[in-house]
Design a protein that fits this description.
Elements (H helix, E strand, L loop, with lengths): L1 E4 L16 E4 L15 E6 L6 H12 L5 E6 L6 H7 L3 E4 L5 H10 L22 H5 L6 H18 L4 E4 L4 H12 L6 E4 L6 H14 L3 E4 L3 H11 L8 H19 L5 E3 L16 E2 L3 H4 L2 E3 L7 H11 L58
Parallel strand pairs: 1-5, 2-3, 3-4, 4-5, 6-7, 6-9, 7-8, 9-11
Antiparallel strand pairs: 10-11
Helix pairs in contact: 6-11, 8-9
Length: 377
C-alpha cells in the first residue's frame, strides 16, 4: 500500500496520466451505479474516523464489481486504520501533513498478519507462516551490509581502545541480543551485565536464564541493594510509579540507577543498543558518544545507532538467535513489568514505556535515567 502526503495531491488529476481517468465517489453513493468503463482510479472519502462507509465501498468495488484499478483513501485517514484499508482493497492512502509517512509505513509493515480472507487475500492466514517477531518485522535494506560493517568496526574500536575496561549493557531486548552475537562472532573481550530490577517480566527472566546457561562466563547480573528496596517499598509501596513522576523516578533510581553505577565502576567505556529510530530523544545518537568522557570518564558506544527495526530482526532471523518472547506480543521496548505494555498500530516505538505519563510533563518522560547524560558528583 502506497502512502502519500496531502501536500503531494493538489488536484484530483494528480498522478494520473493522460490516458487514465479518475473519479471521486461520494461517501453515500452506491458503487454499483458507477460506470467503471475506462476508470483507472477511484477516490473514496473518509469524512471522519467514525464513518467507515468507504471501507464497504472499496470491498464492493473489489469483490462484487471486480474493479482492478487504483482505489485511493482521502479525508480523515488514520494511521491505525491503514491495515484495514489495505485489507479492504485500497492501494493508496493520502495522509495529513501532520502525519509522519515513514512512521506510518513502518507500522503498516509491522502488522502484516490477517486471520481471514479479505479483498486482496482469498486464503486465510492459517495457511501462511505463523506470525512472530521475526516473520513480522525482519526486513533488510540496501544499506544493511554497510551498516553491519560499521557496527563491527565500532565494536572492534571499542574493544581496542578500552581493552579490559569495557562492558556491554544487556537490556535483554532485541538490539542487545544482536550486539552480544556480534561481540561473540568477532571474538572480542567485551563482557556484559544485566540489571535485574526485581520487577522484570516472566519472559524477560526466562531469556536471562537461557543466556546464563550458554554465556554465563561473560555475563554479570546486578540487582538492587536488598535493604534499600525494603526501605523504599515500606515507604512508597510496591507500585509507587503510578503515583507520580517523582515517585517513578525514585523507583528507577533504587532499582536501576544504583545497580548501574556499580556495574560501571572502573569502566572507561560501555556498549548499548541505543538506536536513532527508537524515539525523538534518541534521533541524534552517535556511534561513539563521548559526551560523558570528561564528567564520568566513560565513552558510550552505540554500534546499532543507525539500524532500523527491520534490520535488527533480519539479523536475528538470519542467525537464528534466541530473543525475548515479549517481542512476539508487540513489545518493541521492554522494561520492568509494571512500567511496560504492548503497543498498538500507529503508536511510537517507546509508547509502551510509562504510558500513564503520556499527558504529564509534555509526554517527554520516556527515559529512566540510564541513558540521560550524567554529571560527576
Amino acid at each position: 500500500m502506497k502512502l502519500i502526503a496531502t501536500t503531494q495531491v493538489n488536484t484530483l488529476e494528480n498522478g494520473i496520466n493522460s490516458y487514465e481517468t479518475a473519479q471521486q465517489l461520494a461517501n453515500d453513493a452506491n458503487p454499483i451505479e458507477m460506470d467503471l468503463a475506462g476508470v483507472s482510479r477511484i477516490d473514496l472519502h473518509f469524512p471522519k474516523f467514525t464513518d467507515g462507509r468507504a471501507f464497504t465501498q472499496a470491498m464492493m468495488l473489489r469483490k462484487r464489481l471486480g474493479f482492478k484499478g487504483e482505489i485511493r483513501a482521502t479525508g480523515e485517514v488514520l494511521v491505525d486504520q491503514l491495515q484495514q484499508m489495505q485489507r479492504s482493497g485500497f492501494d493508496v492512502a493520502v495522509l495529513r501533513e501532520d502525519q509522519d509517512i515513514e512512521a506510518a509505513q513502518r507500522q503498516l509493515q509491522r502488522f502484516g498478519a490477517y486471520y481471514q480472507a479479505d479483498a486482496l487475500h482469498a486464503t486465510p492466514a492459517k495457511q501462511h507462516k505463523p506470525q512472530n517477531a521475526k516473520t513480522r518485522y525482519a526486513q533488510t535494506t540496501d544499506s544493511y551490509a554497510e551498516k553491519l560493517k560499521q557496527a563491527q568496526a565500532t565494536l572492534r574500536q571499542a574493544a581496542s581502545e578500552h581493552d579490559g575496561s569495557i562492558t556491554q549493557a544487556h537490556s535483554l531486548g532485541a538490539e542487545d541480543v544482536v550486539i552480544a552475537h556480534l561481540i561473540r562472532s568477532l571474538k572480542l573481550d567485551i563482557p556484559a551485565f544485566v540489571l535485574d530490577t526485581g520487577k522484570l517480566n516472566t519472559e524477560t527472566l526466562e531469556l536471562l536464564n537461557r543466556i546464563k546457561e550458554t554465556q554465563g562466563n561473560h555475563l554479570t547480573v546486578y540487582q538492587p541493594q536488598h535493604e534499600a528496596v525494603v526501605h523504599f517499598v515500606a515507604k512508597a509501596g510496591e507500585l509507587p510509579m503510578y503515583k507520580g513522576i517523582s515517585e517513578r523516578k525514585a523507583c528507577c533510581h533504587v532499582r536501576k540507577m544504583e545497580p548501574l553505577a556499580r556495574a560501571l565502576v572502573g569502566k572507561t567505556a560501555w556498549v548499548t543498543g541505543l538506536r536513532r529510530e527508537q524515539s525523538s530523544a534518541r534521533a541524534d545518537v552517535p556511534l561513539v558518544d563521548d559526551a560523558e568522557q570528561q564528567s564520568q570518564g566513560r565513552v558510550k558506544f552505540n554500534p546499532l545507532a543507525n539500524w532500523t527495526w527491520g534490520e535488527i530482526w533480519y539479523y536475528i532471523d538470519l542467525h537464528q538467535l534466541d530473543y525475548n518472547r515479549l517481542h512476539d506480543q508487540f513489545f518493541p521496548s521492554i522494561g520492568c513489568a509494571p512500567c511496560t505494555r504492548a503497543i498498538s498500530m500507529g503508536e511510537d516505538f517507546r509508547a509502551g514505556r510509562w504510558w500513564w505519563e503520556a499527558n504529564l510533563e509534555g509526554g517527554a518522560a520516556k527515559e529512566c535515567g540510564l541513558h540521560v547524560a550524567q554529571q560527576k558528583a
